[in-house]
Each structure stands twice: as C-alpha cells, then as structure tokens.
Amino acid sequence: MITKTVQSVTEALQDVKDGSTLMLGGFGLCGIPENAISQLVKLGVKGLTCISNNAGVDDFGLGLLLQKKQIKKMISSYVGENDEFERQMLSGELDVELIPQGTLAERCRAAQAGFPAIYTPAGYGTEVAEGKETREFDGKMYVLEHAFKADFAFVKAWKGDAAGNLIFKGTARNFNPVMCGAAKITVAEVEELVAVGTLDPNQIHVPGIFVQRIFQGVGYEKRIEQRTVR
Fold this sequence. Notes:
alpha/beta
C-alpha cells in the first residue's frame, strides 16, 4: 500500500532551501497551511518567492514570514490587511506582483494540468498586459499568462488519508485544490489523517496522485480576518 505520510512538519519541509518558490493555499486566513508557515519561520529560509491569494495579517499567516523578512517577492491578488507588507512594498524591500484573482487561480490550475500558459481577457488594455503577448479570439482580445513554476505547494485540508487523497471544507476550497500538483512537491497538512479506504471516494476533492507528502497538523488557530457582528 502506498503511503505518503510523514511524521511531522519538520520532516515534510526538511528540503526547503533559500530562494525557493512556494505556493501557499488559503483564502484570507481561511484554510492556510499554518503548520508549514510556522516551520518556514523556524527554518529561517530567506529569499522566498511566495504565490498566495493574500499575504496574511501582521502577526499571522504569511505576515510571520514578512516580519522576519524571509520573503523576497509576493505574487498575490489581495494584500490589504498587512501593514508590514505595505511598508516593505513602499520602501522597495519587497518585490510585488499583483494579479487578478481569477488569473492567479488559473495560472495555478495550468501548472497543475501541465499546460505552459493560458489566454485570459482579464487585464487586457491595462498595465497588467504590458510586455505580454495578446491575441484575438472571436473578436475579443486576450492576454497570454504563463503557468506558475514552483518548487513546493503547501496546502491545508480538512481530512486526508495516507495515500494523499484530500477533502477540503468551505472557503478553503478556493485556492488549495488548484495548487495541489502545481509544484514539484506538494505537501498537505490535514486536520484529520485517516487510513486509506476510510474516505468516501465520491467526496474526495483532490486525488492522492497530486500529493507527495501528507502529515497530521496540530494547534490550528483558524483566525477570523475581519469579525463583523450585527
């Protein structure tokens, strides 16, 4: 029986090096790989390029890596909740590439599927398209966007089994699934790790073929980015 289980986050991230390009799943603070991010802080790896929908907040998520100045470049869609991110970007310490959210997702999905690039109408006629190939299809203009190339994808799932099959919950499904298999190595941390054959095959969102390592996560905070009450 194939098992992709590793015993800890330490083992899962043992070969992450300075200058790596990382994909990190999650939407806001929902479904982010908390254990992997904490381990990256402990490892002290520098010069990272991080591909993520957002950049966390000042004291949580990718904000922890920004505090330690471990990130060289952020490729993101939404970064409005992080004062340290703003400071580093405006000072020139941090290279930032802002991408329309759908384009970010599809560039991940293209990498997952083995496609080198996609055409998208998003950004045509704006500075997003500057220096990029454009082409007309059926009377509408599109911009060529290349698939991402990443060394590691770190994702967080609700449940997973030893073969790497994953089930996500709620908003965590926004970016985690498309990052699985989109990097050379995909590492999944899960709230509940079960034996192969336990999960209902009809409920699996990502098959284990897209995952190289899986481990049982611990100590999830699951913070709320902006709490609103009536």
